[in-house]
TrEMBL record:
InterPro entries: ANTAR (IPR005561), CheY-like_superfamily (IPR011006), WH-like_DNA-bd_sf (IPR036388). SUPFAM superfamilies: CheY-like (SSF52172). Signal peptide: none annotated. Pfam families: ANTAR. This is ANTAR domain-containing protein. GO terms for molecular function: RNA binding.
Length: 228
């Protein structure tokens, strides 16, 4: 079926695009749920090996805490492992293998492509067990947008980069025991002073954060103001 082929082909094309755009890159892959989902080049062997060992930058990045840049034991290769942010249940992980320590331009390209791969991974995971309905796709894209909006607010508040902002959101979500999606929606509402649906009336139905998430967002925003 075309639907079955679409997922892997989409990931392969995005990964190939990333490898072509990063000089000295010889492989890239995406993992989720403690396994390698798709990989090309050297990542075909390196990603699954780390999951089998239960150790390595890809496994460490799966905690969602931070982007990891490390030299590999062979002494000639580097890996950049980037946790995604498309779901509150745990990130996908993008791995990029290069023959040099990644430069600022390399990291910028990776940061541009990662959201596309994370969203594509989410679609494939949803489609693994059931047909993805149009409303599910809309909800998934909206959740991603809310998380990115919340990250932008935190970046401005703390004057930090995207990774540090995401880590701050994850910590707050865990501390208050609320979903990252709900916390993000609540933060957008608290800072914007109006429900998300009123701020973006043309985007269709949006997440309505529960009271616990709204309270968590208020406390988080106050705490970030003290830290900034």
């Amino acid at each position: 079926m075309d639907e079955v082929r679409f997922g892997p082909e989409l990931l392969d094309r995005l990964l190939a695009h990333l490898v072509e755009r990063v000089p000295g890159c010889d492989g890239a892959g995406v993992s989720t749920n403690s396994r390698s989902l798709r990989a090309i080049g050297t990542a075909v062997d390196r990603d699954p090996e780390q999951w089998r060992r239960g150790d390595g930058p890809v496994v460490a990045a799966a905690t969602g805490e931070e982007t990891l840049v490390e030299a590999l034991p062979d002494g000639v290769s580097w890996i950049t492992a980037v946790p995604g942010s498309w779901t509150e249940e745990g990130p996908s992980v993008l791995s990029v293998y290069t023959d040099h320590e990644p430069k600022e331009d390399d990291l910028r390209v990776i940061d541009q492509v990662e959201p596309l791969l994370a969203t594509a991974t989410a679609v494939i995971e949803f489609c693994a067990d059931e047909v993805l309905r149009a409303d599910q796709m809309v909800e998934m894209v909206q959740n991603r947008r809310l998380i990115e909006q919340a990250k932008g607010l935190v970046m401005g508040r703390l004057r930090c980069d995207s990774g540090a902002a995401f880590r701050a959101l994850v910590r707050s979500s865990q501390h208050f025991n609320v979903k990252l999606r709900d916390l993000s929606a609540a933060l957008v509402e608290v800072v914007g002073g109006a429900p998300v649906g009123d701020q973006e009336p043309d985007t269709g139905p949006t997440t309505v954060p529960p009271p616990a998430a709204v309270q968590a967002a208020r406390m988080t925003w106050q705490a970030l103001g003290r830290d900034g």
